[in-house]
C-alpha cells in the first residue's frame, strides 16, 4: 500500500465579454432632395448626391431600391391633347446619366453602361430581396457618395407634357450580400 499526493492549481480568466456588432447606415437623404421641373426633351437634371456612411462596427452590403409614384402637374394636365402617360412610360424616356456609389459606376457595372429609369426600377432579380441594386460593399466606418442624374430623351413626345413622377430612394445596409 502506498500514499501519493497530486498537486493542482487553478486560474480564472475574468472580464471576458461577447458583444454583437452593429450595422448602422447614416445618410443625409432625409435632408436632401432630388427635384427637376419644366423638363423638356434633351434636358438633364442636376446630380442628386447623398453621403452614405456605415457608422456601425460591422462591414455591410448596401442595397438600393427605387420606387416611383405619379405626380402630374395640375396646372397643365390635359393641355397636351393626349391621354395621360403612365409613370412607367415616363420613366422609359428618362435616361440615367449618372448612377454611382463611391467609385463604383453602377450604370456601367450593373446595366452595361446605359439604362432608363424604368430599367433600374424593373431590375428585380426575382429573388427574396426585391431591391433594384444589391450587394455594394460598405465597410465599417466607410462613407460613399451616392450620385444620380437623369436626362429626358430627345424623342419624348407631346404625350409627356405635364406628366411627372416622384422618385423615392431607399437605402438598406445588410450584414451579408443578397440578404
Figure out the total of helices. Answer: 3
Tell me the β content. Answer: 25-35%
Please report the total strand number as a whole number. Answer: 8
- What structural category arises from helix and sheet content? mainly beta
Percent helix among the residues? under 10%
Gross morphology is: rod-shaped
The N- and C-terminal alpha carbons lie at a distance of: 68 Å
List keywords for this structure.
179 residues, 5-stranded antiparallel beta sheet, 8 strands, 9% helix, 32% strand, rod-shaped
Task: Write structural notes for this entry.
By secondary structure, this protein is mainly beta. The protein has a domain at 59-174. 9% of the residues lie in helices and 32% in strands. The protein has 3 helices and 8 strands; from the N terminus they run βββαββααβββ. The chain has helices at residues 87-92, 106-111, 117-121; strands spanning 25-27, 48-54, 60-70, 94-101, 104-105, 133-138, 143-152, 165-174. The chain has a 5-stranded antiparallel beta sheet. A 3-stranded antiparallel beta sheet has the order 6-3-8. A hairpin with a 2-residue loop joins strand 4 (94-101) and strand 5. The longest helix is centred in the middle third of the chain and has 6 residues, at 87-92. The N and C termini lie far apart (68 Å). Mean pLDDT is 82; it is low at 125-129.
